[in-house]
Amino acid sequence: MLSVDVEKQLGDFALQAAFEAAGGATALFGASGAGKTSLINMIAGLLTPDRGRIVLDGETLFDRAARIDVPAWRRRVGCVFQEGRLFPHLSVKANLDYGRWMGGHAADAKAFAAVVDLLDIGRLLERRPGKLSGGERQRVAVGRALLMQPRLLLLDEPLASLDAVRKADILPYLERLRDAARVPIIYVSHNPLEVRRIATRVVMLANGKVTAVGGADLLDAVPVDMLA
Amino acid sequence: MFDLSPQEWTAVALSLRIALVATLVSLPFGIAVATVLARKEFWGKSLLDAVVHLPLVLPPVVTGYLLLITFGRKAPIGAFLADHFGIVFSFRWTGAALACGVMAFPLMVRAIRLSVEAIDRRLEDAAATLGARPAWGFLTVTLPLAMPGIIVGAMLAFARALGEFGATITFVSNIPGETQTISAAIYTLTQVPGGDAAALKLVVVAIVISLAALMASEWLARRATARLHGA
Description:
heterodimer, A: 228 residues, Rossmann fold, B: mainly alpha
């Protein structure tokens, strides 16, 4: 259970958003510039809100009034970024192991094999990120975030840098992820088609404010010009 | 060509030792200062930047004199280090290494800083979300990605230290076998009648060592870059 109620002034842009997310996949949906990525960064601990509270599974991650701000590295919130952000100097296998390594956990061959299998990245393990295609890179990034045993998984436009064919390739993996991993997912996207396939709940964001919260049917009311 | 006298060989060996020690000892400080300048914003940052670069623009004799009045045997810091840690700089090869390290520091910091600035900070953010506390993120992501710049910085500092003359001779004088480097030996030889031939031999040695250091740095940096990207 994630509960967010934050405010942040970013230049001329005022972000003031509150929402809750339980299990399953919740989409943060809105046009680019709506403040989705800023919101995600605040949940991950990469951006500090001016005011507000962030609570995950009963643990307060951020509370301005109580002066609580758990650093990113202690939040156990897995992130998949738009550009993957794999470590270029490490092999795919070392990238996947990075979170476990930093957390000081023993190797878990079963969990590793399960994730590698889920994302079908077994033949990439010895390669460097520079030698991967865009879709492969994003699958590895998902695996890396999953293997750190997160309490929450944030996917920030994971398909935005891919062309239509690659998107279609990778969407089934994300559906499998949603069904197989018992981690709540926040899925950020400006693409209604993606959101329909992945998310069970939708939080609509416009100009830094939450405008609606509901099921995927919310997307029916989305103006046609946004159905890019 | 290379039939150097024992005293000249001593100067060559001493030069290499002083330059090596100066580079290795200053490297952790160079990495720290370069990272702070590249990554942090704080009050007095431009002052730190200016102080680091000072040896590059000051006359070396001034730097040497400043070292003399701070690290000399009777100077406050010099006396403290000598009394409490037994570290003596004045008229020792260690003092020459200190002078060379200070003179080479700006070059080292510049090269490392550029490479740290070129690293995508968002990779460090990604490391943090994966549970890496800042020190671990630095060691496992920033440092390896900055390695080509660190190699170049170290090699430039080594080459600079090898050629140091003014600050060294001001601070620790020109004592054969203790502080007489190649540069100081060449200077001495040019001051005595008939020393030209011997001076020329040392000049060739100096050119060969410096060229080798620069070429090695190029090669190492290229190899490190290639390794980073999995070639």
